[in-house]
Amino acid sequence: MGFFKDLKQDLSQAVNELTEDAAKITSDESESVQETVPDDDVMVDTLNEEPEDVAEDIDVSKMLENVDTNEEAVTEEPKAEESETEESETAGLFKEPEKKKTKKNTKEPVAEPVKKDEQEETDETTIISRGLRIKGDIESSGSIELLGSVEGNVSCSGKLVASGNITGNTNSKEFYSDNAKITGDINCEGPVKIGNGSVIIGNLYAHSAVIAGAIKGDIDVHGPVIIDATAIVMGDIKSESFQINRGAVLEGYISQCYSDNSPKKFFGDK
What we know:
By secondary structure, this protein is of the alpha/beta class. The protein is built from three helices and 24 strands.
């Protein structure tokens, strides 16, 4: 940009100097002609002749015009580049962000039940007080003392002492009932004691059992079974050993199938 301006100024200054010199030359020649020619009849028309420098002046003006056009072309090119860069920047600013495709999880999360083996047994005891009514399953890593009523399954890693009502199955390490009413199966890893006044409607599975209350269901015990005098049992019994006290009421089939002394082996029956 500065180079073309300087060139233009230099050329215009040179043209002005040339025109001034040409004007001086013409004036000097006219004076010399007038002095040298004495005769008025002989006159040389030198004023109408254009000097060669004037022609050069015309050519220089054309050059100046070309310089102006070149200068404009040069100045327009960076403007075009600037406009392109501005358009690209604005396009980048207002460009919509790409939406990430996310896969919808159509499967609903399912809560996995905690296995009994994974529960650590504790010494804590959960007490369900009398008058409290619970609808739903109950699980505890300790012991449970149930005085109220539960409509659901009850399981614990320790001892289950029931004096209320349970409508559902129970699962525990030890089971004791006193004046309880249970409608459901009793599953126990250890001993079971059904106290006097308790009513059980369901099957019983345990390692050993002492029954002083009423039970309507089958009894499957791998150890000894004692039927106390106040007991009422309506169902089949399978055990290792069996004892019935006087006064007990029993209606069902009794089998000592878990005993080492099997009658079938003794008599040789298959």
